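Action item from last week, closing it out:
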Amino acid sequence: MNDKQLDEAIVALLNQKRVGDFPFSNLETFSERIKLLKNSKNHFTVNDILGYTKGVAKAKDLIFESDQAKALLPDLCELEPADFKGLYVWFNDGKPFYVGIAKNVITRLAQHIKQPNHNSASMAYKVASRIFEVEVDTRAEFPKEKIKRIQHWLLDQQVAFVPIADNDELAAFEIFAAIKLKTVLNSFETH
């Protein structure tokens, strides 16, 4: 590809229509979702759904058979238990401390408590790096046993979630939820 072809390819790319078009005109649904997420009746104790002996498949069954799922996932409860795109919130004694989004929420929750590294278990790493004073040059060098200790603690915490299929709406709701719920582990700082 010569320079002229490269320029043409870039211009063609930039002239494409943007995917996604969330209108931001109906934000009442955001506040309704926050109420659902804050309601402790809709919280799952993580160990109950994703304890050490439970995998993602078992977690799906446990979640979709629950009363909480009827409130949080009404449209999905009519279907076979399956993972879903959406937002999740971690709680400690009813206080929200972290909001996350994922294309597969149940799988992502399992990664937070079962994966041994700073990438897959990013929230556990974030907590561990604030609690344990460890001098490392890179995140990858952070001691995995410290992350494991936080993951063990996370098993006793609660989580709630809502499905959101639209990417723009999901991204907007993540920021909205983190601000509304005052989650200490979400900062949206630039690097």
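Closing note: The mean pLDDT is 88.
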